[in-house]
Amino acid sequence: MWAKRQNNQLELAFGKRSEGEARSEACKGTEVCVARAETESPATGPTMEEVLEPGNLNKALGRVRRNKGAPGPDGMTVEELGDYLREQWPGIRAQLLEGSYSPQPVRRVEIPKAGGGVRPLGVPTVLDRFIQ
User: Residue 54 is part of which domain span?
Assistant: First the structure.
């Protein structure tokens, strides 16, 4: 009975021996291995300054224009976005760089489903689509 209990404890501690990753030499027994303490690696990916480069902004504007879509709760259309950005971009850019930009609420729309009923859909503002 002791051998059966000990095998069950091994299975609980490590799972079945034929599955999973191989354990290191330090973790061969029934003791639980503790993760090493290391400093976190810095976030990878582009910085906000890189995201806000003119080439990226032009690509984003082109995507929003291609996707078209309905206006959000502010009523701004895709066609009006370019003029709005020419006037307001310095302030929006500053908010994005300092992390204080907050997206506007979405407009709720119900889309009819083929089998009956409706599906809720949130329509963001055109500006928020551009920033996303």
Answer: 48-131
Please count the structural domains in the chain: 1
- Residue 31 in any domain: the answer is no
Helix (H) or strand (E) run with residue 123 in it: strand 118-123
Q: What is the average pLDDT score of the chain?
A: 82
Long-range contacts of 46-53 (CB under 8 A, 24+ apart): 48/96, 48/97, 49/97, 52/93, 52/96, 52/97
CA distances from 115 to 112, 120, 130 (A): 9, 15, 33
Does residue 15 belong to any structural domain of this protein? no
pLDDT digits (tens, 9 = 90+) for 38-87: 776 666 788 899 999 999 999 999 999 999 888 999 999 999 999 999 99
